[in-house]
Amino acid sequence: MSDSIIITRGLTKTFHVGEVDVHALRGVNLEVRRGEFLSVIGPSGSGKSTLFHILGGLAPPTSGEAIIDGVNIRALTENQRTELRQRKIGFVFQKYNLLPTLTAGDNIALAQALAHVNSRPADFDQILELLGVKRRLHHKPSALSGGEQQRVAIARALVNQPAILLADEPTGNLDTQNSNAVLDILRDLNKRTGQTILMITHNPEAAAFADRTVTMRDGVIID
To answer: Which three-class secondary structure state does DSSP give residue 148?
Structure first.
């Protein structure tokens, strides 16, 4: 088994906007080791969110390869990409995307139901304790702070034991104290469980919590 859980080679993505071609990715080469915590940093328009969507199976690339845990995304149908997301990838977004009518616990359970998973990981109670939300599962999002909502969103992303956790600006809606708490938790999860984490951010201070940082600009990785 390869030590790299994410590999991209010559990855491109072009969007057609009217009569104009927008080249969001221009040949991205990247490898992420299994168990690594990697930050991808860059300004708006650098291509990092497009990269996130392709690695998450949310969109196909235009050309090149994106290999996720041994699976080449470009060779998959839309249904197969959906299956890949359910089996191998957990998502954490800037907007917590919790359903307001459900409790925190039910939001987590819904992720299991959508993936047709019936049981939780044996160590999931420990993850809930680490996230500090085990005693908040009966509360609806409106009764939780922003930091708590984001930690519930992380629990939801981890409940199906994904090989990769993709985090897109996970602290973008949080104040400094809650941002640092969430980033500390992500780093702790990575160290304790070996969870592979790829985090996209425009914030150098957030990026510094990762093991390694790569910088994107104009659709390519520049270091």
So the answer is: helix
* CATH number for the domain that contains residue 177: 3.40.50.300
The pTM (predicted TM-score) of the whole model is 0.91
pLDDT in tens, 70-102: 999 988 999 999 989 888 999 999 899 999 999
Whether the CB-CB separation of 102 and 140 falls below 8 Å is answered with yes
- Print the domain residue range for 168: 35-58+82-221
Provide the domain count of the chain.
Answer: 1
8 Å CB contact between 55 and 38: no
Flag whether 66 is in a domain: no
What is the DSSP secondary structure assignment for residue 62, as one 8-state letter? S
Type of residue at 72: N
Compute and round to an integer the Cα radius of gyration of the chain.
17
Residue 107 lies in a domain: yes
